[in-house]
Amino acid sequence: MKRKVEKIKYKRGKSTRKCSKELKSTDFNVSHVTVYNYLRKVKKWKAFKRPRNQLLTKMQRQRRLQFAREHKHFTAKDREKYMFSDESTKYLFHVPNRQDDVVWGSQPDKVPDVNYVKSSAKVMEWGAMGVIGLSKRHTVPAGKTINANYDVTNCSCDTGMVYI
Questions:
Q1: How many domains does the chain have?
Q2: pLDDT value of residue 28
């Protein structure tokens, strides 16, 4: 029984409930609370949330750093004339739920990272916000590239504000 419970160490998707269910199928009638108590009190393990690493390209990192350097001296008054826009892609790849994506173990540095894709090329949604408020949400056709000209001409956001 102990070997079966210890096999869940640093493995994703192995909850105490699943472990208990596997043990019950092999004639060990234990509850998930018993498995939890064994892991916490006997093995001194903890359930760690897996660290997230955002997959950015070198170009994306350079552009983010450049933007931060150019705008670090802005005051609140300077920001009033800007409208920030952003688009979001419907994900093709599943992003794990942070609430139940844990692994059991004794050392946090041995917890495997979660690699996930930033965005997927399917349906995009676009929106903007500024001091005057929010724009309406706009669905972007597949294959279109978003830029300031697209925002102004296709999204009916003629507010006289500068787009970033």
A1: 2
A2: 86
